[in-house]
Amino acid sequence: MTELSTQTPAEIDEQIATLTLKLDAAYRTLNWLDSPQASRTFRREERVAEQLAKIEELSIELRPLQNEYIRRGRWERAFLVTSSDGHVHSTMGCSTCHRDTVFGWMTVLSGKTHAEIIEAIGENACTVCYPDAPVAQLSTAERKSRARAAVEERKAEREAAKVARELAKVPRAHALAVKVDELVEAFGLDDERREAYAATYTDGSRFAKGYDTAYSVYSDMIYRRRTRRAA
Ligand SMILES: [Zn+2]
Q: How close is the Cα of 118 to the center of ligand 1, in Å?
């Protein structure tokens, strides 16, 4: 490997970016292995140890690269938002970004001057990170309205991300229960059966099991209808 002190910021950041991605992946796997869902995973202990070793190894590789970045007084860096507007920021901690913002690290721009970066990215520059970027020449009113629109957009994005997270948590049984409800509406049920079905929903302690029961009721219902039709 070439001596670190002779490498360009772009070369160093490219390596840091690659190692960081690997590190993120290892942490994600580790978190998953630590979750209750993974408690019965095949060779779980062994895989946890593997991930820990990988994290250790990657961290050792990262250290000299990061030290070199600090030693040279932390050069300029540029990050492109890939999850939405495509703005470029000088830091991932920019106040206009939020927790769900996804960044692509434009390592080719590492070590360039502020002016060179603005030149390269033009109007995509974030006006907070690069106050002297071209977009700053807009009228005050226009700038304010753009800022307002951006805030609204981020709010909507955050909402959408929240909904997506919530939806991901909804168990399959829930979707099933909605379907069962619709079918009960459509097919009707005799009183006794309806009561049994309703109990699976209203009794909190049986909540989780309730959906399964509801589904059995539904299957039974379909089966009876079919046999009745066939008769
Ligand atoms: Zn910014």
A: 12
Supply the DSSP symbol for 5.
G
* Neighbour count for residue 91 (Cβ, 10 Å): 15
CA of 184 to the centre of ligand 1 (A): 53
Could you tell me if 20 and 92 are in contact, meaning their C-beta atoms sit under 8 angstroms apart? no
- Tens of pLDDT, residue by residue over 155-183, are 888 877 776 666 565 555 455 556 566 65
Q: What is the dihedral of CA 160, 166, 167, 170, to 10 degrees?
A: -170
CA of 103 from ligand 1 middle (Å) equals: 11
Nearest Cα to Cα of residue 67 among 32, 21, 15, 27: 15
pTM, rounded to two decimals: 0.56
Q: How far is the CA of 88 from the centre of ligand 1 (A)?
A: 7
